[in-house]
Amino acid sequence: MKYIIYGVNRVAKDFLYVFEDLEILYFIDSESDCGEFLGYSVHDLEYALNDKDYDQIILCDFDKDKKKNILVSKGFVYGTDFVYEEDFFETLDELHIPRHRKIAVWGTGLTAKKLSDYNVEWNTDCYIDTYKTTEQFNGIGVRSPKEITNWKDYFIIIAVVKDQEIVEYLQEKNLKEKIDFVNYQLAVGLPSRLLRRTIFDTSYYNLECSTMLNHLEIFYRGNTRCCCTTFVEQNLDNMLDKNINELWHSNLHKILCLSAENRTYSFCDKSMCPLFISKSDEQGQIIDKDYKKMTDKPEVLAIGYDSSCNLKCVSCRKQLHIAQGEELKRLNQITEVIKKDYLPGCKFLILAGDGEVFASTTYQAVYEDVNCNPEFIRILSNGTLFSKERWEKFVKGKKGKVMLTVSIDAASKETYEQIRCNGNFEQLQRNMEFASQLRKDGALSYFRINFVVQKNNYQEMIPFVKWGEKLGVDEVFFTKVLNWGTYTEEEFQQISMMEVDGITPKKELRTILQNPLIRDSDIVDLGTIQYAHKVDKIETINNYYMWELEKRGGSIFEL
Known about the structure:
By secondary structure, the protein is α/β, with parallel strands linked by helices.
């Protein structure tokens, strides 16, 4: 098919970013006098009326009525002579929610509640709750799995983040993923839905962030995202379902990259990402700047797919966990793919975003692999196992710069061992002294300590900064506690030091934040606590993780 595009505007530009393989002859526009757009010639409508060399006109615009009426007045027929850009969107989808089956949503927690806020095209017939405690949720009946006798009657959307047990249960019922059930991320993350969300978004932020174009996070069960999982909720494909080229150059990834390039940032949580502090929606449009494409492969790789840990932190989990059985088998599969396909070409490796890097056999297999020799490595650890012996084993044979971030959340033995259950504060202190010496000697290029602010520890923020100064860290990083499904809403409000809006600190915390040691320190960063966060006057960054390290640690990423 040969097409011409009616509309010289941002919608047309966005459309071609995704549908770059269409055969476009030229543009027409009744209101534009420019002779070229996106490398194509631009003509008036009369030119198209006399041209017989195209098959259809694609009408692109936010408001199509005026252009549609002009075409109709000229005798053009919708569906035959012209179509809309969104008529192409569903061709991107590999999954279609069946219309002939009842829809059951498995889950009655925070995720299921959030799912109901999406403008989905299906109606939920019932909810399923593994531990049924109520008869209704969102005004719809709740059933336990035992109450369902004919599973084939339903198409099931799993509204649970950690869904391994549910997936295995449904597979035991001879149900197939993507045919009989899907995780909610796939259901609400259809490319057609996401493209519609960003291509018609009229927002504009004066920020150029290229993180999505070069960054990949691999987390639970091999799911992936192209930015921090706290800052963006939309998954890409699972890395066990598609090879690296299929995943990285997928329609999903292309659409998320588009949301950064068109400056809408439609999928970014602007209440969480520090880059959006002091930035507001300017309702502008960008059509005169070239859109960049993603890198050939992910150059920045963050892995956090193994939750195995030697601690039982109250904000993270309710029991100790070391992967075994079927879970470990899947983790080993992920590890082998990472070693084979993702480590080669990786310039900056971050490990690990979940679990403890020195307690996980799968992470150990990654960093000891012959292909694991990136230019830069960042360790995310709880610090309790950061001994001289493990450090020497970790860096053996590696030439790249190493950075260390340690999550601690306390400045006293009593508070630490209450929050970070199974931890030994005296051992941690010795390990931090060792890390401090490594930083002074230059073996570490960067050293940061983290503190998740919550009711049980906020009064230790000031002594924590003093400890950081004594250790000579590059940064003391504070963030607000988040609910990862560990708490009920009521429990979380008791634990959180933020008001219900999640943005405004409670009175007690505001007092701490106004202390000069917090407010004026050169090494303190308030991360996701935006209320008192220092504004970073920056409009262009290549990768968020590189930027956040260099703003305190200097020119780390220069070789």
